[in-house]
Amino acid sequence: MLERTKELENAKEKLEYLATVDELTQLYNRRYFNEYLDQEWRRLGRERKFISLIVCDIDYFKLYNDYYHHQAGDKCLYQVAQCLKNLIKRPADLVARFGGEEFIIILSNTNSLGAEKVALKLCNAVAALDIPHHRSKCSSHVTLSLGVATTMPRVKVSPQKLIQAADKALYKAKDRGRNRFATVEFSPKIIH
């Protein structure tokens, strides 16, 4: 009976892991990210502390996949994911795969200046991987474009608004030539 209970506990742990982690990148998945963002939003709102989000996109990844094929694309995604994960070390911070070639990072208790410093480190670290990208229109190797948004959470404001702000900043970075980060001012309006 004890052995069966242990087997069931192990199976439950494995299911919980599979439900929260992206199989390819070994980062948290979007579902877990959303749950964690809601939790941090409430906590940091109570504590009146900043939260920052960084949305990262691998530049010209579709061209990478078309040229090097999907196996190399998967390997590239994994390498970039692990690079991001290795740079984000504070316990309350989180790196997740947001979809396709997009990643998203929660920086708890981090103001915009701190988030910009992290974004610059992420850009430089991925470039330093020196993964060749002969189809990129901005570099000879794999690079990132990043969008940064920061706010102090409020109860009557949806954390989705911060995601939208970070996404807007990402497109600003892409419009400016990619392989860089951009920041947007985020002053949330109260949702009634």
UniProtKB/TrEMBL annotation:
This is GGDEF. Coiled coil: none annotated. InterPro entries: Diguanylate_Cyclase, GGDEF_dom, Nucleotide_cyclase, Rev_trsase/Diguanyl_cyclase. GO terms for biological process: cell adhesion involved in single-species biofilm formation; negative regulation of bacterial-type flagellum-dependent cell motility. GO terms for cellular component: plasma membrane. Pfam families: GGDEF. CDD domains: GGDEF (cd01949). The lineage of its organism: Bacteria, Bacillati, Cyanobacteriota, Cyanophyceae, Oscillatoriophycideae. Residues 49-186 form the GGDEF domain. NCBIfam families: GGDEF. It comes from Crocosphaera watsonii WH 8501. One of its GO terms (molecular function) is diguanylate cyclase activity. Gene3D superfamilies: 3.30.70.270. SUPFAM superfamilies: Nucleotide cyclase (SSF55073).
